[in-house]
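Minutes, structural biology subgroup

Action item carried over from last meeting: produce the structure token record for La protein (Podospora fimiseda). EB confirmed the sequence was re-checked against the source entry. Recorded below for completeness.
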Amino acid sequence: MADTVVQDQPEAVAPAVETLAVEAPVTAEATAAEIKKDTEVVEQKAQTETAEQDKENAKANEPKILKTTAQIDYKNPKNNRKYDVAPLPVTDDPVEIRKQVEFYFNDTNLSTDKFMWESTGGDKNKPMSLKTICNFKRMRRFQPYSAVVAAIRDSTVLDISGEEGEEVVKRKVAYVSNPAASKQRLERSVYVKGFGDEESTTQFDIEAFFAPYGPIKLVKLRRTPEDLFKGSVFVEFDTVELAEAFLKLSPAPTWKGHDLLIKSKKQYVDEKNQLIKEGKLVPSKNSKPKFFEGRDLQGGRGGRGGRGGRGGYSKGQDVNGFSKREERNGGGRGGRGRGRGGRGRGGRDNKNRDNQNRGFKKEEVKKSNDDGVMPTIQATNEKGQVVKSDTNGKRSREDNTEPAPPAKKVDTKTEVAAV
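Output recorded by EB:
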């Protein structure tokens, strides 16, 4: 039988069929959503461009102020303060003499200058030795002494009396505490920035700069806790009207050919408080203690939890107008309060903990003579045994044999006067 040859037959291929995607019908809702989306994209882009343009415009309109470049000298902090009276010429000008001495006794300086307040008794208006005043750094250029005496005799706000060479000075009208004083000072004060780095005569130069817009009660150079000049000042005018007039000056005054950033002190304070509230600025914890009418408003010894509040803070505002904040160095619950700067009795949370650390424990409760209830505190030794004590675990003041700390030397005058 003959072999049969089977040839491979080509596989039948089905004709290709082109499949066309059928688009869903476009609805009015879809068209509207697409248009809205495109519109939002365009608007967002326009807003971004507008915001960027506003930033550029604001930057272009910013004052070209003179900035500080000095660095803090931590090794020799005294070098941070450049103030020096040596360049000032010796003079017997009665106008300058009266202006300077009257500044020391004015309400603003007297209430915030601890040395002046304690020397005059504040509102007690005790006479102060003129020789002491003449030893202030800024007074030393006024010569001779007789010229100082003659100048003060013509003062309309000061009285001078005493034997020749032993004269004393006091105010004609005693200082009167004013609850609204801080607010009034804030309202007549301005903030000005753009004075650059400090030189030995910067204080005097800035005073002369503001003199034509016065009378001025105070020109205060703002400094870091390390005494480095920030390039800005607080200026307190004699009246609110003078401060407002300065803020409205057009064109605004300039410093050495540079613009100045000028605003009211209240605006400056409000802006800083807002930044603190938003968490964008942390209040400085190293600021120097503020003094006002016989009280240290920040830091210091802190008193016994009463004067100036716990930890030495005042009940309301500090002298710069900042409102009190919840967190402070010391004070509050568990903070440093009563006592001489110690941690003993200031905070409620610390009381029991501190007693435990000192070896005291609460043993029992007994009734006092007036039927009240008071805790009995007993001391224990290292082995936990109770130690009898007639002082109820407390050391009497008489038992303190440690010598009293030496009195601090008071700088005769560190505050700089305004013109």
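Discussion: The two ends are 139 Å apart (CA to CA).
Next step: EB to file the record with the rest of the batch.
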